[in-house]
Amino acid sequence: MKPRTPLMRGNVLWLSVVSFLNDAASEMIYPLLPLFLTGTLGVGAAFVGVVEGAAESLSSLLKLAGGWLSDRLGRRHALVAWGYGIAALGRPLVAVATAGWQVLAVRMADRVGKGLRSAPRDALLAESVPEARRGEAFGIHRAADHAGAVAGPLLATGVLLLYPGDLRRVFALALVPGLLTLAVAIWMVRDPRPESPAPGPAAPEVRLSGLGPRFPRLLGVLALFALGNASDAFLLLRARELGVATALIPLLWAALHASKSLWSLVGGRLSDRVGARGAIIAGWVVYALVYAGFAAAWAPWHAWALFLVYGLFYGLTEAPEKVLVAAMAPAGLRGRAFGAYHFVVGIVALPASLLFGALWEAFGAPTAFVAGAALAGAAALLLPLALAGRSVHG
Q: What pLDDT, on a 0 to 100 scale, did the predictor assign at position 283?
């Protein structure tokens, strides 16, 4: 039996390094932004919501455009490098912000970078490995991404231990991993050799008709699940409600990302063996059980246990979902397919969080979590029906 070629080389290796460094830089800043906005700049909590809502909405729109543009150009590396570069150079400017609108501008720039790079990066990664090993490749990439999300808060904590309360210094030092991100993205990542299928339609419209009827159905089921997938910030609020000390919340957050990193490796390989569809359904079932667990929980240790298991949901879904999208799209439409995928998941995130928050305020946290679990269960039941038809890998 011929030994399997290691995947940790070429674009898989370097895109993983890029994601690790980028998330380390981002997570040095992101968890501290609400405190900086409200404590240092004196803005209200409502403005914090405006910053995040506007930034994520812009990112979702640009993910659609970034995927389309990468198909039109026939090259993805340049958009990936530009996307990481805009974020790496713009993000640390929050260190010199003196007003809330300036932080908003920095966050918008950061999300512009994310919007431009996400779909081209995923398409580039899918095209850099054999189809049968895409799950493993995406799993490695997601594991590196989550590992960076562990490293970032730890770096920020180290800086704050040396310079207590100096948030601006933390933000400025995020430029270091950001510049490393940009250097690796420019010099080490490369466009793979073009695949044999013909390029996508020459018309300038964003069109997905070449993907067949099952792809819109897939997006519909993903949107249904996303409607019950509220911001993980609510999990942190629930953890505090269950008695987890405020000082331990960052450690709980880091533990979640460590769990995501571990399970991403497992979930990616599992999707190659049993199929992406089966892995996604299993992940959504795990999500439903975890949310039901948060509804029934009453002790601090329940929060710690549920957070660790919650990482399994990410491992079983993040890479397999991208494997499924790549399998359903020919090379000339792959950027557009990933753009549509990121757009749908991102654009539903806002109403999902609004719905969850409204249920929490009106009926309490258990009701909100049960509703999220129910939507996840419904999506798991509908996914096989949405994908019925001609078989694809996954």
A: 94
Burial call 300-320: b when 16+ CB within 10 Å, e when fewer: bebbbebbbbbbbbbbbbbbb
pLDDT at 318: 84
Instruction: Annotate 358-375 with DSSP letters as a single string.
Output: HHHHHH-HHHHHHHHHHH
CA distance 179 to 22: 9
Question: Is residue 328 a part of any domain in this protein?
Answer: yes
Continuous H helices in the chain: 10-29, 33-35, 45-73, 77-90, 100-126, 134-162, 167-173, 175-187, 214-227, 233-241, 249-274, 276-296, 300-327, 334-363, 365-386
- CB contact at 8 A, 200 and 333: yes
H helices of 275-389, in order, are 276-296, 300-327, 334-363, 365-386
Whether 391 maps to a domain, the answer reads: no
User: Could you tell me how far CA 108 lies from the centroid of its own chain?
Assistant: 17
Neighbours of 194 (CB within 10 A): 12
Number of domains in the chain: 1
What are the residues whose beta carbons fall under 8 Å from the beta carbon of 366, sequence distance 6 or more? 295, 296
- Supply the range of the domain harboring residue 57: 10-190+211-386
Q: Is residue 243 part of a domain?
A: yes
pLDDT for position 312 = 93
Calculate mean pLDDT across residues 152-172: 88
What whole-number distance in Å separates Cα of residue 85 and Cα of residue 94? 16
For the segment 252-310, what is each residue's pLDDT rounded down to a tens digit?
888 888 898 888 888 888 888 888 889 999 999 999 999 999 999 999 999 999 999 99
Q: What's 244's domain CATH number?
A: 1.20.1250.20
Q: Which pLDDT belongs to residue 96?
A: 94
pLDDT tens digits for 340-375?
888 888 888 778 877 888 888 889 889 999 999 999
Number of Cβ atoms within 10 Å of the Cβ of 38: 15
Mean pLDDT value across residues 129-140: 85
> Residue 200 domain-assigned?
no
